[in-house]
Amino acid sequence: MTTREFGDIELRQVRENVWEIPESDEMRAPARVLASEALLEQIGQDKTLEQLQNATHLPGISKYAICMPDGHQGYGFPVGGVGATDCEDGCISPGAVGYDINCGVRMMKTNLTYEDLQGKEEELVDALFRAIPSGLGGGGVVKGDMDTIEGILERGMQWALDEGWATEDDLAHCEDEGFRDDAKPEYVSKKAKDRGRNQIGSLGSGNHFLEVQRVTDIYRDDVAEKFGLEEDQIVVLIHCGSRGLGHQTCTDYLRRIEKEHQDLLESLPDRELAAAPAGSKLAEEYYGAMCAAINFAWVNRQLIMYRTRQVFENVFERDWEDMEMDLLYDVAHNIAKKEVHDVDGEERELYVHRKGATRAFPAGRPELPPAYADVGQPVIIPGSMGAGSYVLRGGENSLDLTFGSTAHGAGRLMSRTKAKQEYWGETVQEELREQEKIYVKAQSGATVAEEAPGVYKDVDEVVRVSDELGIGDKVARTFPVCNIKG
């Protein structure tokens, strides 16, 4: 049996690309890492494995805690982590969701080709940067009053449709149609709502971005046809979340857990895993507040897409409908949802925590929209500014191996602090433009340095492992043309 050791943690190879930390001591389940040997070596360099092992102490954890191929150290629970806990005798953990509730990605298709775009790159990136609010703090497409915030939190994308910011087709191509009916705005604090009021339709900062891309490779012709993708096509990828509203919501409930469930907190090896017992008042209130923040994030991305359509209309002097700027899919990758899964031959309702992991349901799962019911859910995995991104579809093995999940991106190799020491933002921008014909515009050079291509893992290897395991099947690859960042 092949084994690997990282500090005090030993992993045994279950099969190719699957490594297990066996259950021991106070662990309630084993932990599994889905990675090639090269990716495992990188994952083992920080506290990812320790955090994954700690996650197995969560009450009600089912089967095993899982780390995706892009996994890296996070806050308490690793980024790239999946943990499913029982809805009756388990817990729900804000720490296993993260601060940016419903951080996620959406991809919009067009009928433009790369040739149509050539010569307009600089005009387009400048126009997008002017039109899409980005960076720390305030500024959004809509400045909302409290009624606006309440409507967004309660109705999600349905609010956007009613107010003229979305189409029926947009809702039909969004996870859960962009609406969580478990949302309870009354459980979101006034402070959180106030932080969200002037950030509706904004990218924020950090690793969030809007990127115009071209499709470079098609791997599964039949699935790509169903998704409406073909080589040389221009698409737009939007990556952001719930902004200050989600961050404040997470903060509020972490503090409440410290006060109200100190006993559970003290039983965990890391206080950052903070969780509320299933069935408790706090668990129900956090779930309602989290679902409301999920709705906010979907509207946030929708308004950014609306503004993007307007920019393309101005630059290309055509209606967005004529350019067929339709939503392929929008999917969350920081979320905990009640889902029914098979555990040891029994159907059980679980809180499936995905923190830096993407839902990847195969064909036939009832949650899928009609457009993808017989082909599988689109999965969107962004790479770095200088690398390709991928469109996958939910793989047949995902339900058994990962509670229907796969990776969410390339995964960081380098901290933001170290990145700013290693890279100079303006130099990165110049090299991307001169060597790769990628046009990047950002609020600061520091942001570009933090997100330089060299700070991320190899997204090609991450996707290869996902494809080989059958948890997310490769459909298409894209490459950046224009990128705007906060």
From TrEMBL:
Q: Which reaction does it catalyse?
A: a 3'-end 2',3'-cyclophospho-ribonucleotide-RNA + a 5'-end dephospho-ribonucleoside-RNA + GTP + H2O = a ribonucleotidyl-ribonucleotide-RNA + GMP + diphosphate + H(+); a 3'-end 3'-phospho-ribonucleotide-RNA + a 5'-end dephospho-ribonucleoside-RNA + GTP = a ribonucleotidyl-ribonucleotide-RNA + GMP + diphosphate
Please name the catalytic residues of this protein. 408
- Tell me the GO BP annotations in alphabetical order: tRNA splicing, via endonucleolytic cleavage and ligation
UniProt family annotation: Belongs to the RtcB family.
What is the annotated quaternary arrangement, including any partners?
Answer: Monomer.
List the EC numbers from the record: 6.5.1.-
Describe cofactor binding as the record notes it.
Binds 2 manganese ions per subunit.
InterPro entries on file? RtcB, RtcB-like_sf
Q: What job does the chain carry out?
A: Essential for tRNA splicing and maturation. Acts by directly joining spliced tRNA halves to mature-sized tRNAs. Joins RNA with 2',3'-cyclic-phosphate or 3'-phosphate ends to RNA with 5'-hydroxy ends.
Q: Which residues bind Mn(2+) 1?
A: 100, 208
Protein name listed in UniProt: tRNA-splicing ligase RtcB
The source's superkingdom equals: Archaea
Q: Which UniProt keywords apply?
A: GTP-binding, Ligase, Manganese, Metal-binding, Nucleotide-binding
Chain sites annotated for binding Mn(2+) 2 = 239, 333
Q: Name one GO molecular function term.
A: GTP binding
- Listed binding positions for GMP are 207-211, 333-334, 382-385, 389, 408-411, 485
Q: Which SUPFAM superfamilies match?
A: Hypothetical protein PH1602
